[in-house]
Amino acid sequence: MPRLAREKSFDSIYHIMVKSISEVNLYIDEKDKAKYLDFVKKAQDQFEFRVYSYCLMDNHAHFIIDANGADISKIMHFINYKYAMYFNKRYERHGHLFQDRFKSKIVKDDRYLFALTAYVHFNATDIKGYETNPQDYPFSSLGIFLAEKKDEYELIDDEFILSMFNLKEATARAMYRDFIFKVKSVVDAQREEFKNDPTEYRSMRTVLVRDISPEKIIEIITEKFNIDKLMLRIKRAKDVKEAKAVLCFVLRKFCDLKCADICRILGNVGQANVSKLCSIGRELVKEEKYRGLIDEILNMCA
Question: What are phi and psi of 162, to 5 degrees?
Answer without folding.
Answer: -65, -35
